[in-house]
């Protein structure tokens, strides 16, 4: 280790500068002893003694500062390595076959006429890390439980396919259909781990980098949650997340490390493949990424195991009595190690060992070839096994294994450690021959020179294949495997929704509260009530859900070991080890990860959970949209509530809180069924149908998104002849006009429905117009239905042509159609081409701002009076009314003066 100011301090803080010295004489004796050790034995020996003293102090429970980083050597000493229970020779043969088939699969995918590519180098670096896991650690699902949850690094998928091929889980035909998912259907293999595309194989989508580590943390936490609440036995499940060192720069990768440590998730292991390379070049060319990550994980409270060097370094390190070799390892930057990975033994002898006679002496009896093959720990089965075993045995903390490897390992000098290796997809004949020779495979030169290189299979009855099957049998079955064992849930009857259907009477409530009341009744259901998982980012009170605290309680594995400040109140904050509510703090990303873990529990553990994720609408699809895409890919189910929705409804919060576009963002997600309901009875029918579609017979891999508002309104009781089909499909007539000469139609959604009804009254009283009001519960579903109809008609011209639901619904509706919402116009404009007759939309386009609701709506021209102007304008276009009326309406309602608008309803957080 470097000394003095040239190196970073090992210990951060904890200096005794403010502590009085009660025995200066004793203190001086200790300092003199240290000085003597330095003077007589050298700084490295003194440092070693200090570290041993710190270790002993911890054993004696003496509080000392944490170590930020340790030497650049393996955490587990050679003498402490456990017995390796496998057959290394057989496992090496298996790994060689897997390496070959993975590379050949990608190379063949680049053949002329296909050219879909793939990635070779990532798996080449991490192959041994996976192999030890497959042979000795990963638990399958054959016992009927969830087994281990393994988050495979996305770019390593070819290696997982290659191993599955050896086990007869995939065929050669399927390998040749890599990245040809439709043209080679049903044999096509997805490019990366995509459960939606391969629902019987992959469990967790991970290639959107950063989401894998985040998802793994919350999966481990969900396992504990399900166990604590008695829903599933997850005691034998371990979560493994395979990550890249470059990936750890994503904020999501490290953002929730503290949660894992805080909750003691010792059922979680991160394996970071430190091949020291990003996609374009070094991760930390001038630094040391393993040391940096060690500091970050240690500081967050994780157990850190460094796996830096393979066994060939053991004799050299055993000679290092002066610490000169360790010092050299500590001070050599990653960029230089990458160079060593590509250079000759002579170069390494001169540039690594050559600048100190003691280092030169260590390798004087080694050949250049032996020096060149001094390897990285992530390629050594015994060292990897020791690290995994230590991780599984460690209690009270999550573990991270930092394993150093070489990107492109074994692929030859054109690939190994090269900056461009991530983008290299094709092996030349010479590359293949070198690769074959290194792997000792019985493949002839002619096979490599004529056409596509062949796959290699040692034979179903070979020792290697039998060994693979035996190891998977001993570990509970094949992985990865996705199995859906969950049975349909018994769904609540209509009584659970009766309260919402009665309306709110004279009381005004927001649609957020209307939903919360539905949820409260559902959580009382004896059959499925316990399966609801409320999730919120430190906003339960904002959404009126603090009433759940005393009964459902907030999940905390430690319970509540303090006296709550509001313990005397009826709605006191209450934490419990068996709590039902997940309170993930101010972290939308963390909450969405909880949503995904809960929403896929039906497959992961065979026990359905019904997550209810409630959040500030603006901070959903906009902030964590990538995770909602991940949710769709993972086939997760549940309800997502964009509360405090709308661009004008949140009054004083302003621009960054004003959501006028999340419905549009939601429309881009094919798995998302999005609604913008206006009344409680609409919410009741939507939730009921959502439970049926996601958790009943013939369940679908979808999730529901409801935007709800914080503006109090009176909710009418459900009409006797309520159009349930219209509510669910996206459009129904909520209020029919009863007087007026000229007909018109107003389509409104969510909080805009009351404005439309007020506009209906004004039109009848002041302008002799009879307008019907329609509640557009889902612009998105209307469009989706219409697109499906058009697609069918395009491809089936000989059959009876389908008519979109919105077209049929409005076919007999007289007059122009004017759409209005608290969203930008692009939301209702989604259905424009399928609306018969004249169609116009009003919307809140542009940035939001802080003001009264009335002023904001007047500014965007979406209030009742502006709707009136919109209807008159369309009637004037049709020649039904004189255009002079338009200026009269503008002047009459002072539509050009924002300050002239009434303030509108105030308050209403929920």
From TrEMBL:
Domain Transketolase-like C-terminal: 730-863
EC number: 1.2.4.1
Residues holding Mg(2+): 245, 275, 277
Catalytic activity: N(6)-[(R)-lipoyl]-L-lysyl-[protein] + pyruvate + H(+) = N(6)-[(R)-S(8)-acetyldihydrolipoyl]-L-lysyl-[protein] + CO2
Transketolase N-terminal domain mapped to chain residues: 151-307
Key words of the record: Magnesium, Metal-binding, Oxidoreductase, Pyruvate, Thiamine pyrophosphate
Gene Ontology molecular function terms on file: magnesium ion binding; pyruvate dehydrogenase (acetyl-transferring) activity
The Pyruvate dehydrogenase E1 component middle domain, residue ranges: 490-716
Cofactor(s) this protein requires: thiamine diphosphate; Mg(2+)
Function: Component of the pyruvate dehydrogenase (PDH) complex, that catalyzes the overall conversion of pyruvate to acetyl-CoA and CO(2).
Protein name in the entry: Pyruvate dehydrogenase E1 component
Organism this protein belongs to: Streptomyces chrestomyceticus JCM 4735
């Amino acid at each position: 280790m470097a000394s003095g100011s040239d190196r970073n301090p090992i210990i951060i803080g904890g200096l005794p500068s403010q502590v009085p010295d009660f025995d200066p004489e004793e203190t001086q004796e200790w300092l003199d002893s240290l000085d003597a050790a330095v003077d007589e034995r050298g700084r490295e020996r003194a440092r070693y003694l200090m570290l041993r003293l710190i270790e002993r102090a911890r054993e004696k429970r003496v509080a000392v500062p944490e170590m930020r980083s340790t030497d650049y050597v393996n955490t587990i000493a050679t003498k402490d390595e456990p017995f390796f229970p496998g057959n290394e020779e057989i496992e090496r043969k298996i790994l060689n076959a897997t390496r070959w088939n993975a590379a050949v699969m990608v190379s063949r995918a680049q053949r002329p006429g296909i050219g879909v590519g793939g990635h070779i180098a990532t798996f080449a670096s991490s192959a041994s890390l996976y192999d030890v896991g497959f042979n000795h650690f990963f638990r399958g699902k054959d016992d009927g439980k969830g087994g281990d949850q393994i988050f495979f690094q996305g770019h390593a998928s070819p290696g997982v396919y290659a191993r599955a091929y050896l086990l007869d889980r995939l065929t050669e035909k399927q390998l040749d259909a890599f990245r040809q998912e439709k043209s080679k259907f049903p044999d096509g293999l997805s490019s990366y781990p995509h459960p939606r595309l391969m629902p019987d194989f992959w469990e967790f989508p991970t290639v959107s980098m950063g989401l894998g580590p985040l998802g793994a943390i919350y999966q481990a936490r969900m396992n504990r949650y399900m166990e604590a609440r008695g829903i599933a036995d997850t005691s034998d499940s371990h979560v493994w997340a395979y990550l890249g060192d470059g990936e750890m720069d994503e904020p999501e990768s490290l953002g929730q490390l503290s949660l894992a440590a805080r909750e003691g998730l010792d059922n979680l292991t991160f394996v970071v493949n430190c091949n020291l390379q990003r996609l374009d070049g070094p991760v930390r060319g001038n630094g040391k990424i393993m040391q940096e990550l060690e500091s970050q994980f240690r500081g967050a409270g994780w157990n850190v195991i460094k796996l830096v060097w393979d066994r060939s370094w053991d004799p050299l390190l055993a000679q290092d009595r002066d610490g000169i070799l360790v010092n050299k390892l500590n001070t050599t930057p990653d960029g230089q190690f990458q160079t060593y990975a590509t250079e000759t033994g002579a170069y390494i002898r001169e540039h690594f060992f050559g600048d100190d006679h003691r280092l030169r002496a260590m390798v004087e009896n080694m050949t250049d070839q032996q020096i060149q093959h001094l390897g990285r720990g992530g390629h050594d089965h015994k060292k990897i096994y020791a690290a995994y075993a230590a991780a599984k045995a460690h209690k009270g903390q999550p573990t991270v294994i930092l394993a150093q490897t070489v990107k492109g390992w074994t692929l030859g000098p054109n690939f190994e450690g090269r900056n461009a290796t991530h983008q290299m997809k094709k092996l030349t004949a010479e590359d293949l021959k070198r690769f074959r020779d290194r792997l000792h495979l019985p493949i002839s030169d002619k096979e490599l020179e004529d056409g596509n290189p062949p796959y290699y299979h040692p034979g179903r009855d070979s020792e290697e294949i039998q060994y693979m099957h035996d190891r998977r049998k001993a570990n509970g079955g094949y992985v990865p495997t996705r199995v859906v064992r969950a049975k349909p849930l018994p769904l609540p009857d209509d009584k659970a929704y009766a309260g919402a259907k009665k309306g709110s009477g004279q009381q005004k409530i927001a649609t957020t509260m209307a939903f919360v009341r539905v949820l409260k009744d559902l959580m009382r259901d004896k059959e499925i009530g316990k399966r609801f998982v409320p999730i919120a980012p430190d906003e339960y009170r904002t959404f009126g859900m603090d009433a759940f605290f005393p009964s459902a309680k907030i999940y905390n594995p430690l319970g509540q070991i303090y006296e709550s400040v509001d313990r005397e109140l009826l709605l006191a904050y209450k934490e419990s080890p068996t709590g039902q509510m997940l309170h993930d703090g101010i972290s939308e990303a963390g909450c969405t990860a909880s949503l995904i873990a809960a929403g896929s529990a039906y497959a992961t553990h065979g026990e359905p959970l019904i997550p209810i994720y409630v959040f500030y609408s603006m901070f959903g699809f906009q902030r964590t949209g990538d995770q909602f895409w991940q949710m769709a890919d993972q086939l997760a189910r549940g309800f997502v509530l964009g509360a405090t929705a709308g661009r004008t409804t949140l009054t004083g919060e302003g621009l960054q809180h004003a959501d006028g576009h999340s419905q549009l963002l939601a429309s881009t997600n094919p798995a998302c069924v999005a609604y913008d309901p206006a009344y409680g009875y609409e919410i009741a029918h939507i939730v009921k149908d959502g439970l049926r579609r996601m958790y009943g017979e013939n369940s679908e891999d979808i999730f529901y998104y409801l935007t709800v508002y914080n503006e109090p309104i009176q909710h009418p009781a459900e009409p006797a002849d309520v159009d349930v089909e219209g509510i669910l499909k996206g459009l129904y007539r909520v209020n029919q006009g009863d007087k007026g000469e000229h007909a018109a139609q107003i389509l409104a959604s969510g909080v805009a429905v009351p404005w439309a009804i007020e506009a209906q009254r004004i039109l009848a009283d002041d302008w002799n117009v009879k307008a019907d009001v329609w509640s557009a519960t889902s612009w998105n579903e209307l469009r989706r239905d219409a697109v499906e109809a058009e697609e069918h008609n395009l491809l089936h011209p000989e059959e009876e042509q389908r008519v979109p639901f919105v077209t049929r619904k409005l076919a007999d509706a007289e007059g122009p159609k004017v759409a209005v919402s608290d969203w930008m116009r692009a939301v209702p404009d989604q259905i424009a081409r399928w609306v018969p007759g004249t169609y116009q939309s009003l919307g809140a386009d542009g940035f939001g701002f802080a003001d009264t609701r009335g002023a904001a709506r007047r500014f965007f021209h979406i209030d009742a009076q502006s709707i009136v102007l919109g209807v008159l304008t369309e009637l004037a276009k049709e020649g039904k009314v004189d255009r002079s009326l338009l200026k009269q309406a503008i002047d009459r309602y002072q539509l050009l003066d924002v300050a002239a608008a009434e303030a509108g309803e105030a308050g209403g957080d929920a």
